[in-house]
Amino acid sequence: MDHLVKVREAYQKGLLPQDIHDAILERFELVSAGIQRIEKASGTTYPISYVEPSVILTSGADMSFQYGILFARTIPVFFEEKFQVVIQISAPLVAFGLKGTIHAILAHEFLHYLELIRKISKMEMLSDEVSSSLFENTYADSTRLFEPRAVFSDQTLLTHITKKFPTGFKDYKLEDKTEKFWISKQLPVTNVALDANTVKLSAEALAKVSLNQNLLQKIKEYEERESKLRKKKLY
Fold it and tell me: I need a labelling partner for 197 at 20 to 30 A (CA). Which of 54, 59, 168, 176 fits?
């Protein structure tokens, strides 16, 4: 799969300037290296991913001025009765993010991917609650994922995740660059309401989902490791 096909299309349509286009193409190797690193550290294949040539903004249901920048999203997709999970990586992350930040975000989305597959395998995806507050959503985001240490064996990667996601992602330099060099220059923006960013699958749709058995086995291993880590905390 060409991860950059949408970026090239946006450039050809005149939606992205030359310097931004070139920066994304040149720095995409950081994304590729991050994916390889995550696969090695987890023993699991990274899901399909692509670079979205826009900044993704979220806002609460109350239509307040509060908004957040999503640098990546994990999206479940049903196409012709086939189920896939796609990681959408925003172009500003690739263009402006530091290596550690890019790898931390890719790893965080990988944890979302695992949680999504785990829920589907246990028929828990009939509805998924979403809060209308960005703060609440950040908190919920961090509480429903696998403990990173149960999944990744790469200590440096774990440090990146811990630093970037103490209680939700924060990288002020990346956010400032995105504001200054993307949003203020009126480059493409995708607005996503938090309330709309939810997953609801029917029981019928869930019943049709075919999951990779090797992946389910790995998830079981992660669950066992996570259980051991929790027991260590108790004693």
Answer: 176
99-133 pLDDT, tens per residue?
999 999 999 999 999 998 888 887 765 444 444 44
Domain ranges within the chain, ordered by starting residue: 5-234
Q: What are 167-206's pLDDT values in tens digits? A: 567 788 999 999 999 999 999 999 987 655 555 566 666 6
Using DSSP bridges, classify how beta strands 48-52 and 67-70 pair: parallel, antiparallel or unpaired. Answer: unpaired
